[in-house]
Amino acid sequence: MKVQREKLVLSLLCVASLQGCMVHSVEYDHTASIECLGDPMKPLYNGGIIQNAEFNSGLMGWSTHRNIKTGVRSSPSGNKFAVVRGAGGTLSSSGNVLPSQSVYQRVRMQRDTHYSLSAWLQVHAGSAHVKAVVKAPHGERIIAGSVVAQSGCWSMLKGGMTASSSGHGEIYFESDAPVDIWVDSVSLQPFSFDEWDAHARRSANATRRSTIRLVAKSAHDDKPMANATVIIELLRAGFPFGNTMTKEILNLPAYEKWFTSRFTVATFENEMKWYSTEWNQNQEDYRIPDAMLKLANKHGIRVRGHNVFWDDQNSQIRWVRPMNTDQLKAAMQKRLKSVVSRYAGKVIHWDVVNENLHFNFFEGKFGPTASAQIYNQVGQIDHSAILFMNEFNTLEQPGDLNPVPSKYVAKMTQIRSYPGNGGLKLGVGLESHFSTPNFPYMRSALDTLAKLKLPMWLTEVDVVKGSNQVKFLEQVLREGYAHPSVNGMIMWAAWHANGCYVMCLTDNNFKNLPVGNVVDKLIAEWKTHSKAATTDENGIVELNLPHGEYNFTVTHPSVMGATTMTVDAASSASEHTITVRV
C-alpha cells in the first residue's frame, strides 16, 4: 500500500486564493473619537473611579485651584458640564503667568496600577492645546495626554499613566493659553498589571490567529477520510516584523545569516536617504541601496523606503541649506523623481517627509502645504507603495506637544484633503523610540489614530539602554502586536561594529545579547502552532494557527496514485473552513 503525500500552499492572510476569506479581529473596548462633537459621549467605564463624572450632581466631588470661579452649565440638549471663568492669565506671586486650569478631583490611586484616562473638553474661545495632568500620590506631576480643544464643540482626550505609589492624587486639565477650560464625561479607570497584560494576550490571540477546519475527502467517492494525518508547515509569518538594516550586511555573511533568518521586513538605516545617495551635488550613487535591496529580495524580505525627504533643518546636506527657493525646488524635484522612480514597485512603503510635525524645513521654504504637495508628487510616480507620515513621540511622550495624536490627525487630514490627494495610499508611521514607556498612553494613542482607518506601523522601535531595557522592549512589542490596528513593526536596532544607535540585539560576533534573546522569544511565540494533527471520524481537524502562509501535507493509507488537493474557503464569525480533497 502506498502513502500519497500532497502539499498545498495556503495563506491565512485572506488573499485572493482564499476566495474572500476574512480574518476577524476584536476591537479594543476603548472608544476614541477624532471628531469635534456638539455634545460629548458618555464617560468610558461609567467614569471609573471618578465621582460625578458627568456633572449631573453639580460640582459634587470637584474643586478648583486659586479660587477660580466655577459653575455647571447645560447645553440646549440638556447635557451638563463644568466651566471655569477667568482662569487664564492669572499671575503667580513672582509675577509669572500661571497656566489656565480646569476643575480638579482628588482620587485614591494604587501602586503598580495602569490608569486609562479620558475626558471631553472645550474652550470658551478659539482653540488651545489642553493637557491632562495627574498629580501622583508621591507629588510627581504627570502629563497623561493632550488634545487641541476648540470652542463650539467637544473634543475627546484619551491618555493614561501608571502609578508607582499609593495614596491620593489629583486629576485636572490645563493649558498654557489664556482660555477657560470646560470639562465633561471624565473617566479614570484602573487596571492591574495582570488585567492589562491579559487583555493584550486576548487581543493578540483574536487578532493574529484564526481557527480553521480542514476537511479531508477522498477524490474517489467524496467521502470524509478519517484518521488522515495533516502535517502543518508555516512558510512565512503573516504579521510583518523586522529590523533596520545597514550596509555592513553586504560584506558580512554572519550578519546576513542572522538578519535574514529572523525578519520579513527591513528599513535601510541611512542608505536610501538623500545625504547618502547625493552627498555631492549632481553626483548620485545608488550602488549601496541597490545591493542591499537585491540582498533583501533574495531572502524574500520586503523593504520600506526611508526616506524621500527629511523635514529637519539639521539633516539637510550642506549644499542644500543655502539654496534659494527656486534652486531648492529644482534640487528637490530631481531628488524625488530619481529615488522614487528608481524604487517604485520595489519598496512597500515610503516615508515621504520624515518627521514633519517636529520640523518644518520645507514648509518654511514653500508654505504650509509643502508636505502635501510632496506626497502628491510621490504618489504620481509610485502607485503601489503606501505613503507614510513617520513621526516620533506620538506614542512615546505625552508631554511633547508637537506630535500628539490630535495634531497627527490634523496633519494627515491636511495631506489627504490637498487637491489630487484623495486617492493616495496613506499610512500612519509611529517611530516608537521609548525610554520609560507609558503603556496606557501608548494604547490610547493607537486607539485614537486607528480612527483614521489607515495602515499603521511601528516603524523604528527601540528602548534606551538601562536596567529595564529588555523588559520594556518586550512590553512595547507585545502592546503593538496585540493592537488590532497595528499592521507591522520594525525595530531601530541597526548593527554597527562601533555600536548601535541606542539598542543592540547582538554582539560583534552576531551572538544574541539579552535584548536579542527576547526578540527571538517573541518571534518563536508568535509562530507557535501544531505541527501535525489527525482527522476525526468525519475527516475533520480543527486548528488554531497564527496568520501566515502554510504547507499542509495530507497523508492517508487508502490513497494511491496522483492526488489533487483543492481548497474551498468560507468565512464565519470565528473560523474558516478549508476543504482538502485527496
UniProtKB/TrEMBL annotation:
Gene Ontology BP, a term: polysaccharide catabolic process
Signal peptide: 1-28
Keyword entries, A-Z: Carbohydrate metabolism, Hydrolase, Polysaccharide degradation, Signal
Lineage: Eukaryota, Viridiplantae, Streptophyta, Embryophyta, Tracheophyta
Keyword Hydrolase: yes
Domain GH10, chain residue ranges per copy: 225-522
Sequence similarity: Belongs to the glycosyl hydrolase 10 (cellulase F) family.
Keyword Cell inner membrane recorded: no
Protein name per UniProt: GH10 domain-containing protein
InterPro entries: Galactose-bd-like_sf, GH, GH10, GH10_dom
GO terms for MF: endo-1,4-beta-xylanase activity
SMART domains on file: Glyco_10
